[in-house]
Automatic annotation (TrEMBL), chain A:
PANTHER family: DUF1446-DOMAIN-CONTAINING PROTEIN, PROPIONYL-COA CARBOXYLASE. This is AtuA-like ferredoxin-fold domain-containing protein. Residues 10-108 form the AtuA-like ferredoxin-fold domain.
From TrEMBL, chain B:
InterPro entries: AtuA_N. It comes from Halomonas daqiaonensis. This is Acyclic terpene utilisation N-terminal domain-containing protein. It comes from the Bacteria. It holds the Pfam family AtuA. PANTHER family: DUF1446-DOMAIN-CONTAINING PROTEIN, PROPIONYL-COA CARBOXYLASE. Residues 5-447 form the Acyclic terpene utilisation N-terminal domain.
Length: 116, 467
Protein backbone atom coordinates (compact mmCIF):
# COMPACT_ATOMS: atom_id res chain seq x y z
CA UNK A 1 0.00 0.00 0.00
CA UNK A 2 1.48 3.33 -1.06
CA UNK A 3 1.16 6.37 1.17
CA UNK A 4 -1.37 8.90 -0.12
CA UNK A 5 -3.03 12.06 1.07
CA UNK A 6 -5.46 10.32 3.37
CA UNK A 7 -3.22 7.48 4.58
CA UNK A 8 -0.01 7.47 6.64
CA UNK A 9 2.38 4.53 6.87
CA UNK A 10 3.19 3.78 10.50
CA UNK A 11 4.65 0.92 12.46
CA UNK A 12 2.18 -1.56 13.95
CA UNK A 13 4.07 -0.89 17.19
CA UNK A 14 2.31 2.49 17.45
CA UNK A 15 -1.16 0.92 17.22
CA UNK A 16 -0.94 -2.37 19.04
CA UNK A 17 0.80 -4.36 21.75
CA UNK A 18 1.77 -8.02 21.55
CA UNK A 19 3.17 -10.96 23.50
CA UNK A 20 4.76 -14.16 22.20
CA UNK A 21 4.37 -17.65 23.67
CA UNK A 22 5.81 -20.99 22.57
CA UNK A 23 4.99 -24.68 22.80
CA UNK A 24 7.37 -26.99 20.98
CA UNK A 25 7.87 -25.66 17.43
CA UNK A 26 4.66 -23.62 17.57
CA UNK A 27 4.63 -19.91 18.36
CA UNK A 28 1.66 -17.77 19.25
CA UNK A 29 1.59 -14.01 18.97
CA UNK A 30 -1.29 -12.29 20.76
CA UNK A 31 -1.90 -8.83 19.30
CA UNK A 32 -4.21 -6.14 20.74
CA UNK A 33 -5.13 -2.67 19.46
CA UNK A 34 -4.41 0.10 21.97
CA UNK A 35 -7.52 1.85 20.70
CA UNK A 36 -10.49 -0.41 19.84
CA UNK A 37 -11.22 1.91 16.88
CA UNK A 38 -8.08 0.51 15.22
CA UNK A 39 -9.20 -3.12 15.50
CA UNK A 40 -10.72 -3.16 12.01
CA UNK A 41 -7.46 -1.78 10.56
CA UNK A 42 -5.54 -4.63 12.20
CA UNK A 43 -8.05 -7.15 10.91
CA UNK A 44 -7.72 -5.79 7.37
CA UNK A 45 -3.93 -5.51 7.30
CA UNK A 46 -2.40 -8.01 9.74
CA UNK A 47 -3.46 -10.92 7.57
CA UNK A 48 -2.24 -14.52 7.62
CA UNK A 49 -0.49 -13.85 4.30
CA UNK A 50 1.40 -10.79 5.51
CA UNK A 51 2.47 -12.55 8.71
CA UNK A 52 3.61 -15.55 6.67
CA UNK A 53 5.73 -13.21 4.50
CA UNK A 54 7.20 -11.47 7.55
CA UNK A 55 8.34 -14.83 8.97
CA UNK A 56 9.25 -16.50 5.65
CA UNK A 57 12.99 -16.37 6.44
CA UNK A 58 12.29 -18.42 9.58
CA UNK A 59 10.74 -21.23 7.59
CA UNK A 60 7.16 -20.72 8.80
CA UNK A 61 4.95 -23.49 7.40
CA UNK A 62 1.53 -22.22 8.41
CA UNK A 63 -0.10 -19.16 9.98
CA UNK A 64 -3.57 -19.27 11.50
CA UNK A 65 -5.35 -16.18 12.74
CA UNK A 66 -8.07 -16.19 15.41
CA UNK A 67 -9.85 -12.80 15.60
CA UNK A 68 -11.06 -11.79 19.07
CA UNK A 69 -13.30 -8.74 18.57
CA UNK A 70 -14.32 -8.69 22.25
CA UNK A 71 -10.67 -8.06 23.16
CA UNK A 72 -9.94 -5.79 20.15
CA UNK A 73 -7.24 -8.27 19.25
CA UNK A 74 -6.28 -11.49 17.58
CA UNK A 75 -4.22 -14.58 18.21
CA UNK A 76 -1.71 -15.57 15.52
CA UNK A 77 -0.42 -19.13 15.59
CA UNK A 78 2.75 -19.84 13.58
CA UNK A 79 4.12 -23.33 12.93
CA UNK A 80 7.79 -24.25 12.50
CA UNK A 81 9.36 -20.82 13.07
CA UNK A 82 11.48 -21.82 16.07
CA UNK A 83 14.11 -23.88 14.22
CA UNK A 84 14.32 -26.51 16.94
CA UNK A 85 12.36 -24.87 19.76
CA UNK A 86 13.54 -24.00 23.24
CA UNK A 87 15.59 -27.16 23.71
CA UNK A 88 16.77 -27.62 20.13
CA UNK A 89 17.48 -24.24 18.55
CA UNK A 90 20.88 -22.68 17.87
CA UNK A 91 19.17 -19.27 18.06
CA UNK A 92 19.98 -17.29 21.22
CA UNK A 93 16.24 -16.95 21.74
CA UNK A 94 15.05 -20.52 21.35
CA UNK A 95 11.64 -19.65 22.80
CA UNK A 96 11.02 -17.03 20.13
CA UNK A 97 10.03 -14.62 22.90
CA UNK A 98 11.48 -11.62 21.07
CA UNK A 99 9.41 -12.32 17.94
CA UNK A 100 6.41 -10.30 19.17
CA UNK A 101 8.48 -7.26 18.25
CA UNK A 102 9.28 -8.63 14.80
CA UNK A 103 5.52 -8.61 14.25
CA UNK A 104 5.20 -5.10 15.70
CA UNK A 105 7.67 -3.84 13.09
CA UNK A 106 5.07 -4.47 10.36
CA UNK A 107 4.04 -1.37 8.39
CA UNK A 108 0.40 -0.35 8.59
CA UNK A 109 -1.46 2.13 6.38
CA UNK A 110 -3.43 4.27 8.80
CA UNK A 111 -6.18 6.50 7.36
CA UNK A 112 -5.59 10.03 8.62
CA UNK A 113 -9.19 10.24 9.85
CA UNK A 114 -8.25 7.63 12.48
CA UNK A 115 -5.25 9.56 13.76
CA UNK A 116 -5.68 11.52 16.94
CA UNK B 1 -16.79 -16.98 50.34
CA UNK B 2 -13.96 -15.68 48.20
CA UNK B 3 -10.92 -17.91 47.78
CA UNK B 4 -7.58 -16.21 47.15
CA UNK B 5 -4.90 -17.64 44.87
CA UNK B 6 -1.50 -16.03 45.37
CA UNK B 7 1.36 -16.50 42.96
CA UNK B 8 4.80 -17.05 44.46
CA UNK B 9 6.77 -17.69 41.26
CA UNK B 10 6.07 -17.92 37.55
CA UNK B 11 9.12 -19.81 36.31
CA UNK B 12 12.34 -21.44 37.44
CA UNK B 13 14.68 -18.54 38.04
CA UNK B 14 11.95 -16.11 39.10
CA UNK B 15 12.43 -13.53 41.89
CA UNK B 16 12.73 -15.36 45.19
CA UNK B 17 11.39 -12.47 47.29
CA UNK B 18 8.18 -12.17 45.23
CA UNK B 19 6.01 -14.30 47.51
CA UNK B 20 6.66 -12.20 50.64
CA UNK B 21 4.20 -9.31 49.94
CA UNK B 22 1.70 -11.80 48.45
CA UNK B 23 1.65 -13.88 51.64
CA UNK B 24 1.47 -10.74 53.81
CA UNK B 25 -1.65 -9.64 51.89
CA UNK B 26 -3.24 -13.11 52.03
CA UNK B 27 -2.78 -13.09 55.83
CA UNK B 28 -4.07 -9.52 56.15
CA UNK B 29 -7.25 -10.43 54.26
CA UNK B 30 -7.85 -13.48 56.44
CA UNK B 31 -9.77 -15.30 53.70
CA UNK B 32 -9.12 -18.91 52.67
CA UNK B 33 -6.10 -18.92 50.41
CA UNK B 34 -3.36 -20.89 48.70
CA UNK B 35 0.11 -19.93 47.46
CA UNK B 36 1.24 -21.39 44.16
CA UNK B 37 4.73 -21.87 42.78
CA UNK B 38 4.90 -22.63 39.05
CA UNK B 39 8.55 -23.29 38.29
CA UNK B 40 8.51 -25.95 35.59
CA UNK B 41 8.62 -25.29 31.85
CA UNK B 42 9.60 -27.52 28.94
CA UNK B 43 13.11 -26.08 29.24
CA UNK B 44 13.35 -26.47 33.02
CA UNK B 45 12.04 -30.03 33.01
CA UNK B 46 14.80 -30.97 30.58
CA UNK B 47 17.36 -29.16 32.76
CA UNK B 48 16.05 -30.99 35.84
CA UNK B 49 16.42 -34.37 34.15
CA UNK B 50 19.94 -33.42 33.11
CA UNK B 51 20.72 -32.48 36.74
CA UNK B 52 19.26 -35.73 38.09
CA UNK B 53 21.17 -37.68 35.44
CA UNK B 54 24.42 -36.25 36.88
CA UNK B 55 23.36 -36.44 40.57
CA UNK B 56 20.49 -38.74 41.67
CA UNK B 57 19.70 -36.46 44.66
CA UNK B 58 19.21 -33.41 42.42
CA UNK B 59 16.56 -32.76 39.78
CA UNK B 60 14.08 -30.66 41.75
CA UNK B 61 13.84 -26.85 41.60
CA UNK B 62 17.34 -25.54 42.47
CA UNK B 63 15.88 -22.40 44.11
CA UNK B 64 13.45 -24.36 46.33
CA UNK B 65 15.06 -23.23 49.61
CA UNK B 66 15.22 -19.57 48.54
CA UNK B 67 11.59 -19.63 47.38
CA UNK B 68 10.10 -21.34 50.42
CA UNK B 69 12.20 -20.18 53.36
CA UNK B 70 10.83 -16.60 53.53
CA UNK B 71 7.16 -17.70 53.57
CA UNK B 72 6.89 -21.31 54.76
CA UNK B 73 6.48 -20.49 58.43
CA UNK B 74 3.78 -17.83 57.81
CA UNK B 75 1.84 -20.07 55.44
CA UNK B 76 1.88 -23.02 57.85
CA UNK B 77 0.81 -20.80 60.76
CA UNK B 78 -2.08 -19.27 58.80
CA UNK B 79 -3.47 -22.30 57.03
CA UNK B 80 -2.34 -21.14 53.58
CA UNK B 81 -1.71 -24.26 51.50
CA UNK B 82 1.39 -24.18 49.30
CA UNK B 83 1.31 -26.06 46.01
CA UNK B 84 4.25 -26.22 43.63
CA UNK B 85 5.54 -28.20 40.70
CA UNK B 86 9.00 -27.59 42.15
CA UNK B 87 9.42 -31.36 42.41
CA UNK B 88 10.37 -31.27 38.70
CA UNK B 89 12.27 -34.47 37.87
CA UNK B 90 12.57 -35.52 41.53
CA UNK B 91 9.44 -34.79 43.63
CA UNK B 92 10.54 -37.13 46.44
CA UNK B 93 13.80 -35.17 46.69
CA UNK B 94 11.84 -31.92 46.94
CA UNK B 95 9.54 -33.43 49.64
CA UNK B 96 12.61 -34.33 51.70
CA UNK B 97 13.94 -30.80 51.31
CA UNK B 98 10.59 -29.25 52.35
CA UNK B 99 10.55 -31.53 55.41
CA UNK B 100 14.01 -30.28 56.43
CA UNK B 101 12.95 -26.65 55.95
CA UNK B 102 9.85 -27.24 58.09
CA UNK B 103 11.95 -28.90 60.80
CA UNK B 104 14.22 -25.86 60.86
CA UNK B 105 11.08 -23.72 61.30
CA UNK B 106 9.98 -25.87 64.26
CA UNK B 107 7.28 -27.72 62.32
CA UNK B 108 8.63 -31.28 62.17
CA UNK B 109 4.99 -32.48 62.02
CA UNK B 110 4.38 -30.84 58.63
CA UNK B 111 2.08 -32.76 56.26
CA UNK B 112 3.58 -32.85 52.77
CA UNK B 113 1.53 -34.14 49.87
CA UNK B 114 3.58 -36.09 47.34
CA UNK B 115 1.92 -36.30 43.93
CA UNK B 116 3.10 -39.13 41.70
CA UNK B 117 2.24 -40.72 38.42
CA UNK B 118 3.50 -38.16 35.92
CA UNK B 119 6.68 -40.16 35.29
CA UNK B 120 5.83 -42.81 32.68
CA UNK B 121 9.36 -43.38 31.38
CA UNK B 122 9.48 -47.06 32.40
CA UNK B 123 6.20 -47.86 30.63
CA UNK B 124 6.65 -45.72 27.55
CA UNK B 125 7.39 -48.57 25.15
CA UNK B 126 4.21 -50.40 26.18
CA UNK B 127 1.67 -47.62 25.86
CA UNK B 128 -0.14 -46.08 22.93
CA UNK B 129 1.48 -42.78 21.94
CA UNK B 130 0.01 -40.26 19.54
CA UNK B 131 2.11 -37.43 18.19
CA UNK B 132 0.99 -34.00 19.46
CA UNK B 133 -0.18 -31.90 16.51
CA UNK B 134 2.44 -29.19 17.07
CA UNK B 135 5.23 -31.77 16.91
CA UNK B 136 7.15 -32.48 13.74
CA UNK B 137 10.17 -34.51 14.91
CA UNK B 138 10.57 -38.28 14.98
CA UNK B 139 10.28 -40.28 18.21
CA UNK B 140 13.81 -40.76 19.56
CA UNK B 141 15.20 -44.26 19.91
CA UNK B 142 15.16 -46.05 23.27
CA UNK B 143 18.90 -45.43 23.80
CA UNK B 144 18.45 -41.64 23.60
CA UNK B 145 15.34 -41.49 25.79
CA UNK B 146 15.84 -39.77 29.16
CA UNK B 147 12.37 -39.16 30.54
CA UNK B 148 8.67 -39.05 29.79
CA UNK B 149 6.31 -36.99 31.96
CA UNK B 150 2.56 -36.65 31.58
CA UNK B 151 0.85 -33.33 32.28
CA UNK B 152 -1.36 -34.38 35.21
CA UNK B 153 -4.57 -32.53 36.03
CA UNK B 154 -5.80 -31.17 39.35
CA UNK B 155 -7.31 -34.41 40.72
CA UNK B 156 -4.26 -35.91 42.51
CA UNK B 157 -3.49 -32.49 44.01
CA UNK B 158 -7.04 -32.28 45.38
CA UNK B 159 -6.46 -35.77 46.79
CA UNK B 160 -3.33 -34.49 48.56
CA UNK B 161 -5.25 -31.53 50.04
CA UNK B 162 -7.99 -33.92 51.20
CA UNK B 163 -5.32 -35.91 53.03
CA UNK B 164 -4.53 -32.71 54.94
CA UNK B 165 -1.38 -31.74 53.04
CA UNK B 166 -0.09 -28.27 53.94
CA UNK B 167 2.48 -28.31 51.14
CA UNK B 168 1.81 -30.20 47.92
CA UNK B 169 4.83 -31.20 45.83
CA UNK B 170 4.37 -32.27 42.23
CA UNK B 171 6.42 -32.98 39.17
CA UNK B 172 4.83 -32.39 35.76
CA UNK B 173 1.33 -31.00 36.28
CA UNK B 174 -0.49 -28.69 33.87
CA UNK B 175 0.36 -25.22 35.18
CA UNK B 176 -3.25 -24.03 35.67
CA UNK B 177 -4.13 -27.27 37.49
CA UNK B 178 -1.91 -26.13 40.38
CA UNK B 179 -4.35 -23.24 40.88
CA UNK B 180 -7.52 -25.18 40.09
CA UNK B 181 -6.78 -27.81 42.75
CA UNK B 182 -7.26 -25.63 45.87
CA UNK B 183 -10.45 -24.20 44.30
CA UNK B 184 -11.85 -27.71 43.76
CA UNK B 185 -10.91 -28.62 47.31
CA UNK B 186 -12.41 -25.46 48.79
CA UNK B 187 -15.59 -25.06 46.75
CA UNK B 188 -16.25 -28.74 46.11
CA UNK B 189 -17.09 -28.08 42.45
CA UNK B 190 -18.14 -31.15 40.46
CA UNK B 191 -15.60 -32.59 38.00
CA UNK B 192 -18.13 -32.12 35.20
CA UNK B 193 -19.07 -28.54 36.09
CA UNK B 194 -17.23 -27.44 32.93
CA UNK B 195 -17.83 -23.69 33.14
CA UNK B 196 -16.52 -23.50 36.72
CA UNK B 197 -13.60 -25.78 35.86
CA UNK B 198 -12.84 -23.47 32.93
CA UNK B 199 -13.02 -20.37 35.12
CA UNK B 200 -10.75 -21.95 37.75
CA UNK B 201 -8.37 -23.06 35.01
CA UNK B 202 -8.19 -19.53 33.62
CA UNK B 203 -7.59 -18.16 37.13
CA UNK B 204 -4.60 -20.50 37.02
CA UNK B 205 -3.61 -19.53 33.51
CA UNK B 206 -3.61 -15.85 34.49
CA UNK B 207 -1.63 -16.48 37.68
CA UNK B 208 0.78 -19.19 36.58
CA UNK B 209 3.39 -16.85 35.09
CA UNK B 210 3.56 -14.68 38.18
CA UNK B 211 4.07 -11.00 37.37
CA UNK B 212 3.36 -11.48 33.64
CA UNK B 213 -0.24 -10.51 34.47
CA UNK B 214 0.62 -7.65 36.82
CA UNK B 215 3.08 -5.54 34.87
CA UNK B 216 6.00 -7.92 34.34
CA UNK B 217 7.03 -8.67 30.75
CA UNK B 218 4.85 -5.76 29.65
CA UNK B 219 6.73 -2.45 29.82
CA UNK B 220 7.59 -0.68 26.56
CA UNK B 221 8.79 2.78 27.63
CA UNK B 222 6.69 5.62 26.28
CA UNK B 223 3.92 3.30 25.09
CA UNK B 224 3.28 0.89 27.95
CA UNK B 225 4.82 2.32 31.10
CA UNK B 226 4.79 0.27 34.29
CA UNK B 227 5.40 1.85 37.71
CA UNK B 228 8.11 0.44 39.97
CA UNK B 229 8.98 -2.63 37.95
CA UNK B 230 11.83 -3.36 40.37
CA UNK B 231 9.28 -4.23 43.05
CA UNK B 232 6.52 -5.56 40.81
CA UNK B 233 3.73 -7.20 42.83
CA UNK B 234 2.88 -10.80 41.98
CA UNK B 235 -0.78 -11.51 41.33
CA UNK B 236 -3.55 -12.51 43.65
CA UNK B 237 -6.63 -13.94 41.94
CA UNK B 238 -9.92 -13.65 43.84
CA UNK B 239 -12.28 -16.47 42.91
CA UNK B 240 -15.95 -16.76 43.93
CA UNK B 241 -18.00 -19.93 44.30
CA UNK B 242 -19.81 -19.14 41.03
CA UNK B 243 -16.49 -18.99 39.18
CA UNK B 244 -16.27 -15.23 38.77
CA UNK B 245 -12.77 -13.93 39.15
CA UNK B 246 -10.80 -10.73 39.71
CA UNK B 247 -7.08 -10.27 39.15
CA UNK B 248 -5.30 -7.97 41.58
CA UNK B 249 -1.98 -7.63 43.45
CA UNK B 250 -0.75 -6.75 46.94
CA UNK B 251 -0.90 -3.06 47.92
CA UNK B 252 2.37 -1.10 48.13
CA UNK B 253 4.02 -3.14 45.40
CA UNK B 254 5.12 -2.05 41.94
CA UNK B 255 3.61 -3.04 38.64
CA UNK B 256 0.00 -2.66 37.56
CA UNK B 257 -3.01 -4.83 36.80
CA UNK B 258 -4.87 -3.32 33.85
CA UNK B 259 -7.08 -4.49 31.02
CA UNK B 260 -3.96 -4.56 28.83
CA UNK B 261 -1.74 -6.59 31.16
CA UNK B 262 -4.53 -9.13 31.64
CA UNK B 263 -5.29 -9.43 27.91
CA UNK B 264 -1.65 -10.16 27.07
CA UNK B 265 -1.48 -12.95 29.63
CA UNK B 266 -4.91 -14.32 28.75
CA UNK B 267 -3.65 -15.56 25.36
CA UNK B 268 -0.08 -16.40 26.42
CA UNK B 269 0.83 -19.81 24.96
CA UNK B 270 -2.77 -20.28 23.81
CA UNK B 271 -3.42 -21.54 20.28
CA UNK B 272 -7.10 -21.79 19.25
CA UNK B 273 -8.83 -19.52 21.81
CA UNK B 274 -12.07 -21.49 21.45
CA UNK B 275 -10.35 -24.72 22.46
CA UNK B 276 -7.58 -24.27 25.03
CA UNK B 277 -6.76 -27.81 26.11
CA UNK B 278 -5.89 -28.71 29.70
CA UNK B 279 -6.15 -32.09 31.44
CA UNK B 280 -9.15 -30.86 33.44
CA UNK B 281 -11.30 -29.08 30.87
CA UNK B 282 -11.31 -27.59 27.37
CA UNK B 283 -11.61 -23.82 27.79
CA UNK B 284 -13.47 -21.62 25.31
CA UNK B 285 -12.29 -18.00 25.42
CA UNK B 286 -14.27 -16.75 22.42
CA UNK B 287 -16.74 -14.87 24.61
CA UNK B 288 -14.32 -13.70 27.28
CA UNK B 289 -14.64 -10.18 28.70
CA UNK B 290 -11.90 -8.25 30.51
CA UNK B 291 -12.95 -5.19 32.50
CA UNK B 292 -11.21 -2.82 34.92
CA UNK B 293 -13.38 -2.50 38.02
CA UNK B 294 -10.96 -0.48 40.17
CA UNK B 295 -7.30 0.46 40.52
CA UNK B 296 -5.25 -2.71 39.92
CA UNK B 297 -8.46 -4.74 39.81
CA UNK B 298 -9.58 -6.47 36.61
CA UNK B 299 -12.58 -8.77 36.32
CA UNK B 300 -12.52 -11.59 33.76
CA UNK B 301 -15.82 -13.20 32.76
CA UNK B 302 -17.53 -15.08 29.96
CA UNK B 303 -15.22 -18.11 30.21
CA UNK B 304 -16.91 -21.32 29.07
CA UNK B 305 -15.83 -24.93 29.38
CA UNK B 306 -16.51 -28.27 27.74
CA UNK B 307 -15.53 -31.85 28.56
CA UNK B 308 -11.83 -32.54 29.12
CA UNK B 309 -9.80 -34.05 26.27
CA UNK B 310 -9.55 -37.84 25.96
CA UNK B 311 -5.77 -37.84 25.96
CA UNK B 312 -3.08 -36.21 28.11
CA UNK B 313 -0.02 -34.42 26.79
CA UNK B 314 3.35 -35.97 27.57
CA UNK B 315 6.78 -34.38 27.31
CA UNK B 316 9.54 -36.74 26.26
CA UNK B 317 13.14 -35.67 26.89
CA UNK B 318 15.96 -37.28 24.96
CA UNK B 319 19.68 -36.83 24.57
CA UNK B 320 20.38 -34.45 21.69
CA UNK B 321 24.15 -34.49 21.57
CA UNK B 322 26.18 -31.40 22.41
CA UNK B 323 25.81 -27.70 21.84
CA UNK B 324 28.37 -24.96 22.14
CA UNK B 325 28.55 -21.20 21.91
CA UNK B 326 31.43 -18.75 21.65
CA UNK B 327 31.50 -14.98 21.21
CA UNK B 328 33.95 -12.16 20.46
CA UNK B 329 33.36 -8.38 20.37
CA UNK B 330 34.39 -5.68 17.90
CA UNK B 331 33.69 -1.98 18.52
CA UNK B 332 34.53 1.43 17.15
CA UNK B 333 35.58 2.39 13.59
CA UNK B 334 34.85 -0.31 10.99
CA UNK B 335 33.57 -2.65 13.74
CA UNK B 336 30.96 -4.18 11.45
CA UNK B 337 33.53 -4.85 8.73
CA UNK B 338 35.83 -6.54 11.23
CA UNK B 339 33.03 -8.62 12.77
CA UNK B 340 31.87 -9.75 9.34
CA UNK B 341 35.42 -10.64 8.33
CA UNK B 342 35.77 -12.64 11.57
CA UNK B 343 32.61 -14.56 10.65
CA UNK B 344 33.95 -15.26 7.13
CA UNK B 345 37.29 -16.51 8.49
CA UNK B 346 35.53 -18.71 11.03
CA UNK B 347 33.16 -20.12 8.43
CA UNK B 348 36.08 -21.01 6.19
CA UNK B 349 38.02 -22.61 9.05
CA UNK B 350 35.03 -24.79 9.95
CA UNK B 351 34.75 -26.13 6.39
CA UNK B 352 38.05 -27.99 6.87
CA UNK B 353 38.34 -28.19 10.67
CA UNK B 354 34.90 -29.66 11.44
CA UNK B 355 32.73 -32.39 9.93
CA UNK B 356 30.08 -31.34 7.42
CA UNK B 357 27.20 -32.52 9.63
CA UNK B 358 28.10 -29.92 12.30
CA UNK B 359 25.13 -27.55 12.71
CA UNK B 360 26.33 -23.98 12.97
CA UNK B 361 24.97 -20.48 13.16
CA UNK B 362 26.72 -17.10 12.99
CA UNK B 363 25.09 -14.05 14.56
CA UNK B 364 26.47 -10.53 14.69
CA UNK B 365 24.83 -9.30 17.87
CA UNK B 366 24.00 -5.61 17.56
CA UNK B 367 23.27 -6.08 13.87
CA UNK B 368 21.07 -9.16 13.44
CA UNK B 369 20.66 -12.07 15.85
CA UNK B 370 17.46 -13.28 17.50
CA UNK B 371 15.15 -12.36 14.59
CA UNK B 372 17.37 -14.09 12.06
CA UNK B 373 17.22 -17.62 10.68
CA UNK B 374 19.98 -20.19 11.19
CA UNK B 375 21.13 -19.48 7.64
CA UNK B 376 21.55 -15.74 8.26
CA UNK B 377 19.06 -14.42 5.68
CA UNK B 378 18.54 -11.14 7.54
CA UNK B 379 22.27 -10.65 8.10
CA UNK B 380 22.92 -10.82 4.34
CA UNK B 381 20.18 -8.34 3.53
CA UNK B 382 20.66 -5.78 6.31
CA UNK B 383 23.21 -2.97 6.02
CA UNK B 384 25.58 -2.55 8.99
CA UNK B 385 26.61 0.67 10.71
CA UNK B 386 30.29 1.29 10.08
CA UNK B 387 31.00 2.45 13.60
CA UNK B 388 29.28 0.39 16.24
CA UNK B 389 29.56 -2.25 18.96
CA UNK B 390 29.15 -5.76 17.61
CA UNK B 391 29.56 -9.23 18.97
CA UNK B 392 30.14 -12.23 16.72
CA UNK B 393 28.42 -15.30 18.12
CA UNK B 394 28.99 -18.85 16.93
CA UNK B 395 26.50 -21.54 17.98
CA UNK B 396 27.09 -25.17 17.05
CA UNK B 397 25.47 -28.54 17.60
CA UNK B 398 26.83 -32.06 17.06
CA UNK B 399 26.24 -35.52 18.56
CA UNK B 400 29.88 -35.66 19.71
CA UNK B 401 31.42 -33.34 22.26
CA UNK B 402 34.83 -33.20 20.56
CA UNK B 403 33.48 -31.47 17.45
CA UNK B 404 31.62 -28.87 19.51
CA UNK B 405 34.83 -28.23 21.44
CA UNK B 406 36.86 -28.01 18.24
CA UNK B 407 34.44 -25.62 16.54
CA UNK B 408 34.14 -23.22 19.47
CA UNK B 409 37.91 -23.33 19.94
CA UNK B 410 38.18 -21.93 16.41
CA UNK B 411 36.39 -18.82 17.61
CA UNK B 412 38.81 -18.49 20.55
CA UNK B 413 41.66 -18.55 18.05
CA UNK B 414 40.29 -15.37 16.44
CA UNK B 415 41.76 -13.57 19.45
CA UNK B 416 45.18 -13.61 17.79
CA UNK B 417 44.59 -14.99 14.31
CA UNK B 418 41.44 -13.03 13.39
CA UNK B 419 40.81 -9.36 12.50
CA UNK B 420 42.18 -6.47 14.58
CA UNK B 421 40.78 -5.42 17.92
CA UNK B 422 38.66 -8.43 18.86
CA UNK B 423 38.07 -8.89 22.60
CA UNK B 424 35.84 -10.23 25.33
CA UNK B 425 35.91 -13.86 24.24
CA UNK B 426 33.53 -16.25 26.02
CA UNK B 427 32.93 -19.92 25.29
CA UNK B 428 30.69 -22.60 26.76
CA UNK B 429 29.40 -25.98 25.77
CA UNK B 430 27.00 -28.45 27.28
CA UNK B 431 24.94 -31.58 26.71
CA UNK B 432 21.72 -30.84 24.92
CA UNK B 433 18.46 -32.41 26.02
CA UNK B 434 15.71 -32.20 23.42
CA UNK B 435 11.99 -32.48 24.06
CA UNK B 436 9.07 -33.79 22.04
CA UNK B 437 5.36 -33.91 22.85
CA UNK B 438 2.97 -36.83 22.57
CA UNK B 439 -0.55 -37.68 23.70
CA UNK B 440 -1.32 -40.68 25.90
CA UNK B 441 -4.58 -42.32 26.97
CA UNK B 442 -5.89 -41.39 30.42
CA UNK B 443 -6.22 -45.10 31.22
CA UNK B 444 -2.45 -45.46 30.82
CA UNK B 445 -1.78 -42.90 33.56
CA UNK B 446 -2.14 -43.65 37.27
CA UNK B 447 -1.82 -40.42 39.22
CA UNK B 448 -2.13 -40.41 43.00
CA UNK B 449 -1.06 -38.57 46.14
CA UNK B 450 0.38 -39.74 49.43
CA UNK B 451 1.57 -37.95 52.54
CA UNK B 452 5.35 -37.98 52.34
CA UNK B 453 7.03 -40.10 54.99
CA UNK B 454 3.75 -41.56 56.29
CA UNK B 455 2.95 -45.26 55.87
CA UNK B 456 0.09 -45.62 53.40
CA UNK B 457 -2.33 -47.33 55.84
CA UNK B 458 -1.98 -44.47 58.35
CA UNK B 459 -3.02 -41.81 55.90
CA UNK B 460 -6.79 -41.83 56.40
CA UNK B 461 -6.50 -40.71 60.02
CA UNK B 462 -4.37 -37.72 59.02
CA UNK B 463 -6.96 -36.37 56.62
CA UNK B 464 -8.25 -32.96 57.64
CA UNK B 465 -10.78 -32.47 54.89
CA UNK B 466 -11.65 -28.95 53.83
CA UNK B 467 -9.51 -26.25 55.37
Amino acid sequence: MAPSDDVNMISLHRLAHARAGDKGERLNLALFAYDPRHYEILLAQVTEGRVQALFAHRGVSQVRRYPLPGLAGMNLVLDDVLQGGVNGALNLDGHGKTLSFLLLGMEIALPTVLEE
Amino acid sequence: MTFLLGSGAGFSGDRTDAAIPVVAELIRRGQPAALLFETLGERTLAAAHRARHDDPDAGFEPLLDELLEPVLDDCLANGIAILGNFGAANPAGACERVKLLAEQAGRADIRIGHVQGDDIRSRLSRIDLQRWEGESGEMPGEEALISANVYLGAAPLVEALALGAEVVVTGRVADPSLFLAPLMHHFGWAWNDWDRLAAGTMAGHLGECGSQVSGGYFADPGLKDVPDLATVGYPIIEVEEDGSLVVTKPPDTGGCVTERTVKEQLLYEVHDPSGYLTPDVIVDLSGVRVREIGPDRVAVSGIRGRPAPERLKTTVCYAGGWQGEAEISYAGPNAFGRARLAAEVLRERLTFRAPSELRSRFDIIGHTSVFDSDTGDLQRHTAGQENGDYRLRLAVGHPERRWVERATQELLALYCAGPAGGGGVRRQFQRRICTASYLVKRSDVEAFATLYGTPLNDQRSHGHGAQ
